[in-house]
Amino acid sequence: TQTILLKNRPEGKPTLSDFEFITEDIKETISSGEMLLETAYVSVDPYLRGRMSDAKSYVPPFELNKPIHSGVVAKVIDSKNDKFSEGDYVSGMLDWKTQQISKGEDLLKVDANKAPLSAYLGILGMTGLTAYCGLTQIGKPQAGETLVVSGAAGAVGSVVGQIGKILGLRVVGIAGTDEKIDMLKSKFGFDAGINYNTTDDMKSAIAEAAPDGVDIYFDNVGGPISDAIFFSINKFARIINCGAISVYNNTELPKGLSVQPFLVKNSALMQGFIVSNYAEKFPEAMKQLSEWLSEGKLTYTETIVDGFDNIPKAFIDLFEGKNKGKMIVKI
Ligand code: NDP
């Protein structure tokens, strides 16, 4: 089986030389309780960057010279496990390997007839759950309010914005290209969009796109984009601190706006969000997301990259904004 190891802890932006491809033998017969899996789709996600560093975080770092793992959909090609049969598809955290043996712990069976398999890594997987739980649990949206989403054209952001529209909010998205801004408005129904790469004065652009101020800010990027939004927050605004991709490759702690005066002045709430803390909400979230999908109220887009060899590149490309919607590698 082909395997991808973490070769070096990246300094700054990850490079292809931080990863190593090896070929390993896989044992010929599986034991009772085990199954042989063949990888079908691999999710690459910004949070993996954090696990490549050895700094303490909410998940332990990857070990050097060990396989990297992330969300994967795999096909069961042989099974001595009571819960899974040959031909089933499963999703869960698995190694970056073309084939692997698993005991099936923490894997879920997924139904290829209900949704395309890749959807279980996006809209019906971790990023969909993040969008739903973050917006509803911390954002506490009320119809008529204004929601601003950064990283709006990505996997989480594009779903946050659409849920905002379903719940009756004015939705403003921030993303890095004009093509993405067009997509936010035409495909996902956002009311307004700002291309941060071509906008000199983000503070004014936000004030213009959110004339009644910002009640909810769903923050996927941190850094200067977020700093600009604090000038427009309303009284009792809620800020969901979901991610900060703009600073993940920094080698020094970011310096920026001091947000406390904005929070105090507006009695605003800013809360860090980690999706795994909301597991008790997942059944409700999955039910609602599936319902909205089948009713056509919610849609999604994916950037599917072909080939196991391209996993590291697809991951690095997240930091270049090469994806629209969920970035997935098809094996
Ligand atoms: P995305 O699909 O949004 O992909 C990343 C996007 O980030 C890129 O497409 C790019 O779009 C944008 N980006 C890259 N560099 C920068 C930069 N310097 N400044 C601004 N934008 C940048 O990824 P996800 O939807 O999977 O994740 C979005 C965020 O949510 C991440 O910060 C991630 O870590 C976080 N997250 C947190 C979770 C949690 O439980 N806390 C769970 C899941 C995700 P563009 O062209 O617009 O720049």
From TrEMBL:
It is an enzyme of class 1 (oxidoreductase). CDD domains: PGDH (cd05288). Pfam families: ADH_N_2 (PF16884), ADH_zinc_N (PF00107). It comes from the Bacteria. The keyword Signal does not apply. Residues 14-329 form the Enoyl reductase (ER) domain. GO terms for molecular function: oxidoreductase activity. The keyword Oxidoreductase applies. InterPro entries: ADH-like_C, ADH_N_2, ER, GroES-like_sf, MDR_fam, NAD(P)-bd_dom_sf. It comes from Bizionia hallyeonensis. This is NADP-dependent oxidoreductase. Keywords: Oxidoreductase.
